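subagent[fold] <- orchestrator: predict structure for attached chain, return tokens only, no commentary.
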Amino acid sequence: MGKGTGDSDRVTVRLARTSDARHIATLCLQLGYPASQGQVQRRLERIQQENHHALYVAERSDGHVIGWVHAYVRHLVVVDAHAEVGGLIVDQDCRKRGVGRLLMQTVEQWARRQGCRAVRVRSNVVREGAHAFYKRIGYSTVKNQAVFYKEL
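subagent[fold] -> orchestrator:
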């Protein structure tokens, strides 16, 4: 991988394991979605049971998880099935080194295996750095929208 010279700079992407819950929870906080290790572990176990979901982690050769991406197949009446990214985060100290690109390439390969011909990503309007990243890797803005929420 890119800019580093040390052995710990080598990054591989693999499916997440429940033992990754602590690292994933730490990264959720950086993304702005605080969650306990237990909450993440329960969610991860549920995702692992779903055939049309995948959660990948980026791991340095020293075993430290420095990023994750969650994708799932979305079936809608109005458009053909596509993969949607439910979340992507790279540790703030490891950005701009190709980790996010590697995670997204993995999702794109997974999506093709799922029979999808497109990947969609939703990103908050305030995440301008993320928008620039997605454009750099070939994504384009197709719509701006409001999101409504009602707690039950």
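orchestrator: received. Logging for downstream: The chain has a mean pLDDT of 92. Residues 99-113 form the longest helix (15 residues).
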